[in-house]
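Reopening this ticket.

The earlier resolution said the output was attached, but the attachment link was broken on my side. Pasting everything inline this time so it's all in one place.
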Amino acid sequence: MEGLRIDIAVFDGMDELDAIGPLEVLRRAAFDVRLAALGAQGSVRCGHGLVLEADGELRDDAEVLIFPGGGWNDRAPIGTHAEVESKRWLPVIEKASARGAILASVCTGAMILASAGVLRNRRATTHHGVAASTLVCGWSSGSRTESSQHASPRTWNISPYRGLADFVARSSHEVLQNAKTIAIVGASRDPNKAGGSVPAGLQGRGFRVIPINPYAETLFGEKVYRSVLDVPEKIDIVDVFRPAADAPEIARQAAAVGAKALWLQLDIRSREARRIAEAAGMDYVEDECTAVVASLHRIRKTAA
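Inline output:
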């Protein structure tokens, strides 16, 4: 991790501490961290009057991009609210996301990320005052809002279509905890493959598994179906053990049968599958193993 390239985005109206705090900590950790401006802007005037000189422009090869907060709640002409309105960070965030950079934020800097759509179905921590303003950003993820008065944090869902707190985007262990029946797409008779060992492990923890396989007749003592569309009963999770290229079609099938969640196993990611799942109102998990999550969180199901 030594030498990790980290850019802290700076802009007029940001909160000084939101940038200087991470800068000091990360530099002490020997990371290659810079205050980076958009374009040729050499200095920025922060929300409390401090003028900061940028170390340079944003780097195209930055591995981490951090957005500070400031200037959201009072709708100041400079600050995060103005930056969201300008939309000038959207192409930067899209490029960073496309190359696999880590996107992070401090306080209301999360709203800049939200405006680019990268927080959909993801959790983020931000200021409690954003709740009344979330429709502007179209945030469709569950977020944790920390009150400056140290009140108990509340979990919100912010959606441009359903309003506030209709549905809360859940973590992977919450998705699994709330499930009982799991359709296994790519179920295998080979116990040395994930499609064979993971469903068996889930079954041992009390989950009802429904194997999906084009050739077998029975697996794990259960009838095998050729497609998710053929399953005659309610499905909580469609658990995918197939290549990422197959994920969008599986997502469409999961949406068609009214599954509650789409789960792509370890090392499987698909933006298109995520988009389809979100549009259908399903919970979405990718690049995680159901068996590992069940073990880590000691999730077991008992007979009704």
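Reporter confirms the inline version is readable. The longest strand covers residues 32-37. The mean pLDDT is 83.
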